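BUG: 3D viewer hangs when loading the predicted structure for this chain

Environment: internal workstation, default settings.
Expected: structure renders.
Actual: progress bar stalls at 90%.

Input used:
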Amino acid sequence: QVQLVESGGGLVQAGGSLRLSCAASGSIFSINVMGWYRQAPGKEREWVAIIKYKGRRNHADSVKGRFTISRDNAKNTVYLQMNSLKPEDTAVYYCTVIATMGGNTYWGQGTQVTVSS
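Structure tokens produced before the viewer hung:
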């Protein structure tokens, strides 16, 4: 069993910042890829950012320059620093990890981010 516990969501005014965290625990020895997705009401889930074990990372164009993904391999934790938040960033944010062995994908339960105008 692998558990992903997310934290850091909440309500913030436009232009503000939030930092999301997601810690993986359980039967997972090594994590290859860690990432964040989001899903706004009435929309499909979309990719936000990913980071590989050695630190190579990519961000979606919609968040590039405002969001930064990072990870702490010793803690099996991934972070998403979100700055200059906009109302259109409002969504449930999900973390995801892909295990190195076997390539299984796991998802967190989601954390709500609401940006008011």
